[in-house]
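// run 5 | inverse folding | seed 20
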């Protein structure tokens, strides 16, 4: 199977910015690489981190042996003061415990969901400023060098736990195209201990409170009902989802962004 580059950016699908990034990457990547684009809503680093983990930690049977992830979500919120020369958050290079390489902007929760799976993490010798569009103008050569196996850009080895925040508790992590809310609650979470299929709970998001049924899968509730159940993401420790059978939980809860707080009330 050909080597694969996953490009994860907070640009809309088909947006001009994505196309420009692809052109820039095309000048830098080895010719045998193919790539896949995944769009994240603007500035949502929680969603970025969730996608990095879901793609990066895939079973070896479901991905090519050689895989690189390039994640760019840079809301420039590491400091609120005016910025000189369009400077933004720094770039990091990491290797997951399964060998997948990751090049990512060190922003918010962009690497939180793989923090405990990083066997290496490095700062990178690259300009922090000089362009408003760093993902096109500055970062592609680093991605290309990674794909080619040239790591001359490595600067300083880092402790992931000292640099990357933990996975946020009780949040919307990702919203899929069906309007299902993938949460940061996970199998084994002590807060979920003792939940039984069929149990009624309440979920409060965006100031709205709705009843939900604890379920074991997408079709264990009646049409139109809201359910809370282990989802399809998270690999060997699944993340739980809030979904509405035949509808959109995202719409019902007034379209919360990733990072929105979820309060669960157990009866």
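// decoded
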């Amino acid at each position: 199977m050909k080597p694969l580059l996953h490009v994860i950016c907070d640009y809309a699908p088909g947006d001009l910015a994505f196309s420009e990034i692809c052109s820039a990457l095309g000048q830098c990547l080895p010719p045998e690489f193919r790539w896949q684009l995944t769009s994240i809503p603007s500035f949502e680093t929680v969603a970025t981190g969730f996608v990095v983990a879901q793609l990066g930690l895939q079973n070896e049977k479901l991905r090519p042996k050689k895989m690189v992830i390039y994640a760019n979500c840079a809301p420039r919120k590491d400091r609120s003061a005016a910025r000189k020369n369009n400077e933004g958050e720094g770039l990091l290079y990491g290797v997951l415990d399964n060998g997948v390489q990751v090049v990512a902007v060190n922003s918010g929760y962009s690497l939180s969901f793989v923090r405990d799976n990083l066997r290496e993490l490095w700062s990178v010798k690259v300009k922090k400023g000089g362009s408003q569009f760093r993902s096109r103008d500055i970062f592609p050569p680093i991605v290309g060098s990674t794909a080619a196996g040239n790591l001359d850009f490595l600067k300083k080895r880092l402790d992931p736990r000292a640099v990357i925040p933990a996975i946020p508790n009780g949040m919307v992590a990702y919203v899929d195209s069906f309007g299902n809310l993938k949460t940061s609650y996970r199998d084994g979470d002590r807060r979920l201990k003792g939940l039984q299929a069929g149990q009624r709970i309440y979920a409060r998001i965006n100031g709205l409170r709705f009843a939900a049924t604890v379920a074991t899968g997408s079709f264990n509730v009646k049409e139109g009902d809201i359910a809370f159940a282990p989802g399809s993401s998270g690999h060997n420790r699944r993340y739980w989802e809030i979904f509405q059978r035949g509808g959109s939980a995202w719409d019902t809860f007034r379209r919360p962004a990733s990072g929105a707080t979820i309060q669960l009330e157990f009866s």
